Amino acid sequence: MKKLFALLLTLALVLSFGITAMAAEPTTMTSAPSTYEALIKTYTLVGSNDSALYPAEELSFTSTPADGNPDDTNLTVNALTVTGNTDQKLVINVPAYDKVGVYHYTITENAGNTQGVTYADGTVELSVLVEYDYDDADGDGYGLKATIGVTNTAGEGEEAVKHNTFTNTYSLGALTVSKEVSGNLASQTQKFDIDVTFTSDKPVLSAITCGDGQTIAPGDWQDGSAAVTVRLAHGEDVTFNNIPAGVTYTVTEQAKHEAADPNGSNSETGYTVTYEGETGTIAENVTAAAKVINTKGTTVNTGVVLDSLPYVLLIAVAVVAVVLFTVRKRRNREV
Prior knowledge:
Blueprint: H1 2-21, E1 34-46, E2 58-65, E3 76-77, E4 80-81, E5 88-94, E6 101-110, E7 117-118, E8 123-138, E9 141-150, E10 152-153, E11 161-162, E12 165-182, E13 192-199, E14 208-210, E15 215-216, E16 225-232, E17 237-244, E18 248-253, E19 272-276, E20 279-281, E21 287-295, H2 309-334
Parallel strand pairs: 1-12, 12-21
Antiparallel strand pairs: 1-5, 2-4, 2-6, 3-5, 6-8, 7-12, 8-9, 10-11, 12-17, 13-16, 13-18, 14-15, 14-17, 18-20, 19-21
């Protein structure tokens, strides 16, 4: 009886282990949240060779889940503060999933408002494979794991390429301001003060450099306007570089140079000022031109010009002689 009882107890224990081993699959499993860095943000410069130039802006991105996903779980993409014109990786936040399957997402860049920037209008397709993780067993069974990847696409006859880059185009131009001075009372060595004012209906987030060493930094803009004064003499010019396309400009010489100069001895005043191309809009990869023209001169009224008097007298004598000859000849005929 003891042996029979021991056999029955052993059989009961074995059966109980079997029942535990065949327990149902856990009904609540989740994958661990994670981050993924692979999408790249970069800029293409047009109108500048300065590879260090970039607009210091913050970019944002949107993820849209596909209609056929197992559920509506969505990704998020961290905002990116641009800190240079080198490739910067975007951080994608992969959430916790509780259902296996393949999830598809479309990532787009949200258009910003920086002057001169054309934002990427393409998309990047991402997929997430959520599967059972048999290597992550715990007391309740096993968990889930998520693997993210960039979808390969290719046109007919093309090799499949991973579209994993958002490229923005930063378009820039330039402005050259020149000086021309003429007239017998005009000084061609006198420096004239010229105000150059830039305006923009969008933020300007990079520096505009001036050939005389001045710089208009992003912080110099107030209410959509920034100005700088340059001093130019006859034949001189100055060029403003790295101006975002779409910025407008106005070139104005300071009014003090048009003030009256009664005796013409003041080299700074008494000028008539005219312009060529003094206003305009900066275009991509184009150097606009503005010219400030100063004239100052006079003539002295000396009455008869002595240099021409002998010629005038000769002509008068010739005319009188012709008249007398004609009259005499007519009288002779009448006689």
